[in-house]
C-alpha cells in the first residue's frame, strides 16, 4: 500500500496486514490431556465413529477396521500410538468421532473423544523448533511445531508422517 505525504511516496506495510495472508487453518482435538492440531487440508471428513471390527496381527494402536461411506478403513488410536494411554484398555466408540484422513497412498481414521474445533493461526503463532525434543530413533518427524495462542499450547502434527512406511504397509494392504 502506498501513502502519499506532501509529495513523498512511502510504503506502508503493517505486520498485521502481512499476517492475515499467512494464516493456517487447523483442526484441533484432544488426545489424553493435550491438544493436537492438524492442517485442515489433511482431513477429508469428521464422522461419528461406526462399529469397529478388530483385526488380528495389527499394531496395538490399530483398533480395527470400520465401514465409512462404503470404504473399509483402519481406525487408529493416537493416544496408544503416542503412549499416553493404557494399550490394554477396551475402546468404547459410543459418542466418539473419527477424523478421516486420506492421501493418494492411504486412508485411515483417527479416533477422537470430542468434536474437533477449527482454529485459524498465523505463522508467528507457530514455534517450529520443537523437533529437537523428538526421539532420535523415530523414523519420521511428525511434530511440526507448537502453536501458542490464547494461553494454549497445541501440538502441531503432520498426520502423514505419524506412521512409518513399514507401519503403513502393515496396516493398509492395498
TrEMBL record:
Coiled-coil spans in chain: none
Return the Pfam families for the record. CheW
**Which residue intervals define the domain CheW-like in the entry?**
23-168
Gene Ontology BP terms: chemotaxis; signal transduction
For this record, an example GO cellular component is: cytosol
What name has this protein been given in UniProt? Purine-binding chemotaxis protein CheW
Amino acid at each position: 500500500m502506498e501513502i502519499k505525504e506532501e509529495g513523498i511516496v512511502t510504503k506502508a506495510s503493517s505486520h498485521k496486514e502481512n499476517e492475515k495472508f499467512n494464516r493456517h487453518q487447523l483442526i484441533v482435538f484432544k488426545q489424553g490431556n493435550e491438544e493436537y492440531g492438524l492442517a485442515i487440508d489433511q482431513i477429508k471428513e469428521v464422522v461419528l465413529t461406526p462399529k469397529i471390527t478388530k483385526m488380528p496381527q495389527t499394531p496395538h494402536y490399530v483398533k480395527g477396521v470400520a465401514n465409512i461411506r462404503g470404504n473399509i478403513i483402519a481406525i487408529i488410536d493416537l493416544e496408544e500410538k503416542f503412549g499416553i494411554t493404557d494399550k490394554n484398555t477396551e475402546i468404547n466408540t459410543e459418542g466418539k468421532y473419527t477424523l478421516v484422513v486420506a492421501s493418494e497412498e492411504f486412508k485411515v481414521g483417527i479416533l477422537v473423544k470430542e468434536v474437533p474445533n477449527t482454529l485459524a493461526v498465523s505463522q508467528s503463532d507457530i514455534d517450529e523448533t520443537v523437533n529437537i525434543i523428538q526421539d532420535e530413533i523415530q523414523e519420521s518427524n511428525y511434530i511440526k511445531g507448537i502453536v501458542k495462542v490464547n494461553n494454549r499450547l497445541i501440538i502441531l502434527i503432520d498426520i502423514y508422517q505419524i506412521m512409518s512406511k513399514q507401519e503403513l504397509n502393515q496396516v493398509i494392504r492395498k
